[in-house]
Write a structure and sequence with these properties.
With 508 residues, the protein is an alpha+beta fold. The protein contains nine helices and 27 strands. Strands 7, 8, 9, 10, 11, 12, 13, 19, 20, 24, 25, 26 and 27 form a 13-stranded mixed beta sheet that branches. Strands 1-6-2-3-4-5 form a six-stranded antiparallel beta sheet. A three-stranded mixed beta sheet has the order 15-18-17, covered by helices on one side. Helix 5 packs parallel to helix 9 and helix 6 packs antiparallel against helix 7.
Length: 508
């Protein structure tokens, strides 16, 4: 298996393609900028090293600070560098390279952006231009070859896999008749009012039929689309604030992002809530923050308003480089799920960011059954992300052999044929358990339930839990299901919803 030095050796002689234009800069998203650290990050990536071990960045200053904050940095004179360390220089400009070897008091490196190419260089260990060394904790090592962290890492992965198995053993909760408030299910009027604030004045816009609000559970902003006559008296522009009320109740708040005017004088508008700004990319280093605390930090940076953010009970430390705000937050929520076994949903509640435990998002006034929904489609497939045989391989370099870890479901293989998941692993200690966990995750049919024309309910959003009672032929559904996506439609004075739901394996 190649290490970062092996990859770097293969790049010697590569020249930039014009003013700082390289494939390394394309990787870090900084093509055209000085590319010495982009080269280091690219080599790490090609060697299979994660960004939690070597940062993905074009900034030499950030790279060195990244190692310093992780207490993985040694200054010149206090440490003897080793192969695969990252050496940082301070000359008339910041510079960085990869340590290839050390011998006879000489440091031998491979560097990018040195005379506009990748090349080998040599220095005295006492060279005045050397600042110090970043010491990555590569997989199975303690910085540079020690195996003292291997057992620690193995333990963490074992704990994670055990939690995965435990979590997926949870069964969906069956609906109790007493829980569903059938007598309180509203008959929606769907009277939509649109108020626009263009910075100069507020005015009401009469919406044509077909206004829609779409909410999804994962990493997508809420979206409101409507059509109105482009008449004199009101002017709607980019960034204008839009408030939507339904039957006098606040329903959606966002900002105009798209306007399209057609020949007939009708204009179509697309409005997004605050989550649209979570598509921005950012670099952040944080220590011991809950997901809610992290959201507040990011919200302050981008002038977003927050409401109630649940205390998830888990504090995380991380370095996120050139990552979307959506992914930064989701990484924290994923870790929370692993550690605490709870799923949280981030959404915008009429202009304020909210973080809520999904178990607290039941909507008992929205029974979905054959009478309250006009149509449904139920899709079952084994064509995607379904595996009944897991094969993991560990390369045992000491013995010159490959160790196999295989877990399979012979019964499903008999029915479906062999659907194999194959991967290589770096740690043999977790091979058996990991193969078992992966089989637990993937050895089942994928089911998608889409329900259209459901009686509208303004309390339903992505992440809501709604009671579903349907006979789908081969199975009967009678439990709370998670709303993955909901489309609220207001047309012909009718208010309906289209739902995409999934099973309810959540702590309640």
């Amino acid at each position: 298996m190649k290490d970062i030095v092996d990859v770097a050796i293969g790049e010697i002689g590569y020249k930039e393609q014009g003013s700082n234009k390289t494939k390394y800069g394309e990787y870090t998203g900084a093509n055209g900028a000085a590319w010495c650290h982009s080269f280091v990050s690219w080599c790490a990536h090609e060697a299979g090293v994660s960004t939690s071990t070597v940062p993905k960045t074009a900034s030499t200053t950030y790279g060195m600070q990244w190692f310093q904050k992780k207490e993985q940095f040694k200054y010149k004179g206090k440490y003897t560098p080793k192969r695969c360390d990252i050496v940082y220089f301070k000359t008339n400009r910041n510079h960085v390279g990869i340590v290839e070897s050390v011998s006879g008091g000489q440091l031998h490196t491979i560097e990018g952006n040195t005379s506009n190419k990748v090349a080998r260089r040599s220095y005295s260990l006492n060279d005045a231009t050397i600042t110090g060394y970043g010491i990555p904790k590569y997989a199975g090592t303690n910085g540079n070859g020690s195996s003292s962290s291997k057992k620690k890492n193995s333990k963490k992965e074992l704990q994670y896999l055990q939690k995965v198995l435990s979590r997926h053993a949870t069964k969906a909760k069956t609906i109790k008749a007493s829980e569903v408030e059938t007598g309180k299910i509203p008959i929606p009027a769907g009277n939509v009012m649109i108020t626009v604030n263009n910075g100069k004045k507020k005015f009401t816009v009469p919406a044509e039929d077909g206004a829609k609000v779409v909410w999804e559970r994962d990493s997508a902003p809420g979206k409101f689309t409507f059509t109105a006559k482009a008449e004199k008296g009101f002017s709607i522009g980019m960034g204008n604030e839009v408030l939507v009320t339904v039957d006098g109740k606040k329903f959606f708040y966002g900002f105009v992002f798209t306007k399209e005017v057609k020949k007939d004088g009708m204009a179509s508008y697309t409005v997004y809530d605050q989550l649209r700004y979570l598509k921005n990319k950012e670099t952040i280093v944080y220590k011991k923050k809950t997901a809610g605390e992290l959201i507040r930090i990011l919200a302050k940076r981008f002038n977003l308003r927050c409401g109630t953010l649940a205390d998830t009970g888990w504090r995380r430390s991380a370095i996120e480089d050139n990552t979307t705000l959506f992914d930064i937050i989701q990484n924290a929520l994923d870790d929370t799920l692993i550690i605490k076994g709870k799923t949280y949903v981030l959404y915008d509640e009429v202009g304020k960011l909210q973080l809520t435990d999904v178990a607290k998002m039941k909507v008992n006034t929205c029974l979905v059954d054959a009478e309250t929904g006009q149509d449904y489609s139920y899709k079952t497939t084994i064509d995607s992300d379904v595996y009944n045989q897991i094969k993991l391989v560990y390369e045992n370099k000491k013995k010159g052999t490959f160790d196999l870890y295989v877990t399979k479901d012979s019964k499903n293989i008999g029915k479906w044929g062999t659907l194999q998941y194959f991967d290589k692993i770096d740690n043999p200690d977790i091979g058996k358990l990991k193969s078992k966990a992966l089989l637990k995750l993937y050895d089942k049919k994928k089911r998608t339930l889409t329900i259209s024309g459901v009686i509208g309910n303004i309390n339903v959003r992505g992440g809501s839990l709604v009671p579903v009672m349907l006979n789908l032929g081969d199975i009967t559904v009678a439990n709370y299901m998670l709303v993955e996506k909901v489309t609220h439609t207001f047309k012909n004075r009718e208010y309906t919803m289209d739902l995409v739901v999934s099973g309810g394996n959540f702590s309640e």
